[in-house]
Amino acid sequence: MINRRPTKKLHIGGVAVGGDAPIVVQSMANTDTRNVAATLRQIGALADVGCEIIRLAVPDAVAAAALADIVRASPLPVVADIHFDHRLALAALAAGVHGLRLNPGNIRKPEHVRAVVAAARERGVPIRIGVNAGSLPARKDKPHMGPAETAAAMVEACLAQVRLLESLDFDLIKISLKASDVPTTVAAYRRMADLVPYPFHLGITEAGTPGVGAIRSSAGLGILLYLGLGDTVRVSLTGDPREEVRVAYEILKSLGLRERGPTLISCPTCGRTEIDLLGLATAVEQHLGHIKAPIKVAVMGCVVNGPGEARDADVGVAGGAGKGAIFRRGQVVRTVPEAEILPALLREIDAAVRERETGG
């Protein structure tokens, strides 16, 4: 059982973040925010796969002006991502966004931050102080810093911004401390955890393409989530943002922190494997793509040990020489020839889903 760090609860639109709320999965659209139709299509697609908050880049006044139409039609709460120009934050607030992300590394004038905070306080809109290691102010005394020093500098920059917001009687604060490497990111969040009561948004920034990025994100987020240091997450991947949502849920499911959709487990194969386990597991994974029920499915390559090793799976198969044993919760319910394994397993999966949905 993971004990999460106690934090203040905020609301981004209708979504609770922090406190006793579930860990929230979010993503960032990669469309041009100025293209309202394309952005809304992507937001809808992300909502369909379980995204709960969407962040949008606001690079200029045209993008800021488009936010009003996007917010009005979006099925998800909208967070505006602001860099450099505080006037874009003011315009985003006027457009009705549900949250702001500000980077203290590039909005540096306190008077500009004060203007944004006043407008956010008036509307009850939370602000995420989003520190990135790559955008920290340059330090002439330490041009090359290691992970520990970089983490300390990130916390220092973040705390300065937190104290500024608190001095303005504003505490609707969310914090992120992201780096592209795991040790720096973990060190920064751990250092900050004892200093403030605000919820953490977790991420490994610039994690990479889906294959490498999922691994790097899983390593970093897994450590932090296991330590109880997360309230909302974004997996940053180069590509379709729907993959970010899928990976985020897989990480959370692996730690028992959220349930959404199926979980597929399959053995790594060995010399005892006598069926096309990879082909079978791939086909099952594709079938599970349209299922939203939180069931566990096992594809195992050994009839001798498979059912026992996956006894907690709702449905599974263990393959042997020319046959497969279909099982439910570790109990074999039928044995079929190899040619019939896939259709028999899919029928059993669909039956389990119907039972789960109807309470049978």
Q: What are the SSEs and their pairings?
A:
Layout: E1 10-12, E2 15-17, E3 24-28, H1 36-48, E4 53-57, H2 61-73, E5 78-82, H3 86-94, E6 99-102, H4 110-123, E7 127-132, H5 147-167, E8 173-178, H6 182-193, E9 201-202, H7 210-226, E10 232-233, H8 241-254, E11 263-266, H9 277-288, E12 296-300, H10 306-309, E13 315-320, E14 323-328, E15 331-337, H11 341-358
Parallel strand pairs: 3-4, 3-10, 4-5, 5-6, 6-7, 7-8, 9-10, 11-12, 12-13
Antiparallel strand pairs: 1-2, 13-14, 14-15
Search tags:
Sulfite Reductase Hemoprotein, domain 1, 15 strands, single chain, eight-stranded parallel beta sheet, TIM Barrel, elongated, 360 residues, 2 domains, five-stranded mixed beta sheet, alpha/beta
Describe this structure as you would to a colleague:
- It is a single chain.
- With 360 residues, this protein is an alpha/beta fold.
- It folds into 2 domains: 10-254, TIM Barrel (Alpha-Beta Barrel), CATH 3.20.20.20; 263-358, Sulfite Reductase Hemoprotein, domain 1.
- 41% of the residues lie in helices and 19% in strands.
- The chain has 11 helices and 15 strands.
- The strands form 3 sheets. An 8-stranded parallel sheet has the order 8-7-6-5-4-3-10-9. A 5-stranded mixed sheet has the order 11-12-13-14-15. It has a two-stranded antiparallel sheet with strand order 1-2.
- Helix 9 (277-288) links the parallel strand 11 (263-266) and strand 12 (296-300).
- The longest helix is centred in the middle third of the chain and has 21 residues, at 147-167.
- It is elongated.
- The chain starts with 9 loop residues before the first strand and ends with a helix.
